[in-house]
Amino acid sequence: QYQKVSRLPPGPVSLPLIGNLPQIVYYLWTTGSIVATFDLFRKRYGNIFTLWVGPIPHVSIADYETSHEVFVKNASKYADKFHAPLFQEVKKEQGVLATNGEHWQEMRRFALQTLRNMGVGKDVMEMKIMEELNARCADIDKKAVNGVTTTHAADFFDLTVGSIINNILVGYRFEEHNKHEFLKIKNALDTAFEIFTPFDMTVPTWVLKWFFPKRYNQMMKVNAECKDFVAKSATERYEAMKSGKYTIDKENLQDYTDAFLLKIQEDGENTDYNIESLKTMIVDLWITGQETTTTTLISGFNQLLLHPEVMDKARAEIMKITENGSRPLSLSDRSSTHYLNAVIGEIQRHASILNINFWRINHEPTYMGGHLVDSGAFVTAQLSALHVNETVFKNPQEFDPERFMEDEKLLQKVIPFGLGKRSCLGESLARSELYLIFGNLLLRYNFEPHGKLSTTETLPYSFAKRPFKLEMQFVKI
Ligand code: HEM
Predict the structure, then answer these.
(1) Which of 120, 205, 248, 427 counts the highest number of beta carbons within 10 A?
(2) Cα of 427 to ligand 1 centre, how many Å?
(3) Predicted ipTM beyond 0.90
(4) Which helix (H) or strand (E) segment is 204 a member of?
(5) Is 302 exposed, middle or buried (0-12, 13-18, 19+ CB in 10 A)?
(6) Residue of the nearest CA to atom 11 in ligand 1?
(7) 380 by DSSP, 3-state: which?
(8) Whose CA is nearest to atom 34 of ligand 1?
(9) Under a CB-based contact definition with an 8 Å cutoff, are residues 115 and 426 in contact?
(10) Domain 93-352+388-476 belongs to what topology?
(11) How many Cβ atoms sit within 10 Å of the Cβ of residue 285?
(12) What's the mean pLDDT in 325-341?
């Protein structure tokens, strides 16, 4: 153990077999959260530190420069992720979330290309986001009493973001007649996320099956229900294509499913492109594309309600650019809205929605930030710790967009989507959603809290943060 430790960045003294588990548990308990625990270790051992989780060393990087050096400059070395055994069992080596190697590479390349094709040229992406937002706002306006509508932020954003991704993947949005089934699945998924902890990500599936069967069965059930629901229309289209009742129009692809089916139609089914991998991909993109964006939006509105002066300043900027709201805010305005960009950057830094980032496998001994890192170690840019590093972001606990107005380059050091080969596949979609939704909502409504606002973190011990329970009033401008 001593010899191994000398080939790794510093960290607390580790014991054979159990590693640093006693210290980790102790500090989680005393600090009250995963992020505060990482922050404490960073202050003690530096921007790159090692924690042994059982017999495996986990190296966390908590500064931008070293993360960039490792995951961008040496990107190809860190393409392999460690996958939770439970994910592997569920995904059966298909899709993009829990795979490595050639299949992952092909699925990622194809998804990025398809999303890019939707956003380039015809601006389909912006159109789909705006169509959805306009429809949701029309619902809000219909329910207004004296220009005011009170609603749960989660309901509004779940439906908005859920419809956008569903439309992109399988070509339809959620309306009055089909929203109930969506919300049912979404609630089941939320519950699964709430019980899903770093423990479930690490242990072999047999431990869950034998010792926590209720937990294991619940997660498997949610996954199956979600897959059936999300991929239903894609499966129907596939069957219709097989029986000759549906032909894909190459010049006019409706959505991701059309693009995938076209590939099957042209090249035939193979190990990468087949109906099972299509279903898995749709679920992967559907799940990753929702919770993340919704949590950021809710967390952002919570901060805007706590800081009405920020909301007013952002609105004044948008009003000026859109000539007093005479047109909607568009993605082409991004280079002119310095304050709104700073607000969204601060929302993402402050929300930092993943408490723990995904681990990559270090295949060979390498130097990182001047420290030797042995092969076999797990490595990650620990985004949550990086975003509260006070040597980069002064008073990190404060919500303060002005920090980016004083130093615009500081925005580059906010990396909510990660870095390198495994960085977020939906980054461009998510950035477009956040910009258009925050910007255009501020243009149309003033927002006021309904009930008490939350200032404390939810689920501080989970893998990812969860949205606050936030009720707010949309006041028509
Ligand atoms: C605000 C919204 C979002 C945030 C903060 C976010 C954040 C992240 C982060 C931190 C990662 C892991 C990066 C790493 O391992 O270093 C990730 C991966 C991923 N994200 Fe996102 N994400 C968001 C929205 C989306 C959307 C809209 C989609 C879908 C279209 C998406 C799809 C994915 C996928 C598929 C991966 C796994 C990529 C791979 O392993 O190759 N995300 N995301």
Answers:
(1) 248
(2) 7
(3) yes
(4) none
(5) buried
(6) 424
(7) strand
(8) 425
(9) yes
(10) Cytochrome p450 (1.10.630)
(11) 25
(12) 95
